[in-house]
Amino acid sequence: MGKITALAGNQRTLYQIDAFADKVFSGNPAAVVPLENWLPEDTMQHIAMENNLSETAFIVKEGERFAIRWFTPTAEVDLCGHATLATAFVIFRYLEPDTQEIEFDSRSGLLSVTRKGSKMRMDFPKDLPQSLSKQKGEIDGVIGGNTVAVMKGKDDILAILATQLEVEKIRPDFGLMSKLDCRGLIVSAVGENYDFVSRCFYPNYGVNEDPVTGSAHCLLAPYWSEVLHKKTLNARQLSRRGGSLTCKVGENRVYISGTCVPYMIGEITLP
Question: 267 partner at 20 to 30 Å CA-CA among 36, 74, 158, 175?
Fold first, then answer.
């Protein structure tokens, strides 16, 4: 299909992609809207609200790079992993099929995605966890469980549980969670068939539980790398849809790999 082309009048192409998935109806669905020029911010927010997915990504080609922005149904966010992976998939498959590496300018700085065989690998900033032990009791009340440790990254709180089964069984109180001073709450434990497993919750951004959260692994992977003494880790997010990721921890970066599956290509009509 080649470069981004303008449709007639008030129509734009929309791709819906299942990210961190090897079949449709799994992983985390994201909408991707390529643009020639930015739409008004409130229009992009309304599109994301209408899509009602955890994230809608908008991109504009600027020189050799793409500028990227991500919107949940309620707000713009600084970083989104699965929607970046989905956007790279759209570029690799539909817009620039001869490209092997994509660079994105974002609110979180320069990001890149590279083709690696059947997978794509994202180069994201490393988020180092800091102890938040004084909030252990509060977090225990939010998740209705007993945490082993509580950590805080740049945006998210990370709660460590003893077993995968405990992660699977928690039933969070989203009213209490929405009062926490963070973007979202990540719950994690050592996995039975993976190095670690997790679940991620973002009620303040209109997403009670995110199916698969790439950006959360900027915090999860460095934590588990230190605990397990491994640089490369296989991860599983235990949402109802579920998704798998491979993470490699570098000095200042985290490399997150996964696959995508196309679900839908359509046209949206703007007011």
Answer: 74
Rg (C-alpha) for the chain, rounded Å, is 18
92: region left, alpha or beta (phi > 0 left; psi from -120 to 50 alpha): alpha
Tokens describing residue 259: 């696959």
Alpha carbon distance 196, 91 (integer Å): 30
Alpha helix segments (H runs only) across the chain? 41-51, 81-90, 136-143, 164-169, 174-177, 217-228
**Total number of domains constituting the chain:** 2
Phi, then psi, of 75 in degrees rounded to 5? -165, 155
Digit-coded pLDDT (tens) for 185-242: 999 999 999 999 999 999 999 999 999 999 999 999 999 999 999 999 999 999 999 9
Task: Please indicate whether residue 55 is annotated as part of the active site.
Answer: yes
Same domain as 171, residue 62: no
Pairing of strands 149-152, 156-160: antiparallel
Q: Which of 36, 41, 55, 267 is catalytic?
A: 55
Total-model pTM:
0.93
Beta-strand (E) ranges in the chain? 11-19, 28-35, 56-62, 65-71, 76-77, 101-106, 109-116, 119-125, 130-131, 149-152, 156-160, 184-190, 196-202, 207-210, 232-237, 243-249, 253-258, 260-269
Nearest Cα to 30, choosing from 21, 18, 22, 20?
18
Same domain flag for 153 and 244: yes
Please tell me the distance from the alpha carbon of residue 91 to that of residue 95, in angstroms, as a whole number.
5
DSSP state of 7: P
> What pLDDT, in 10s, does the model give residues 101-128?
999 999 999 999 999 888 999 999 999 9
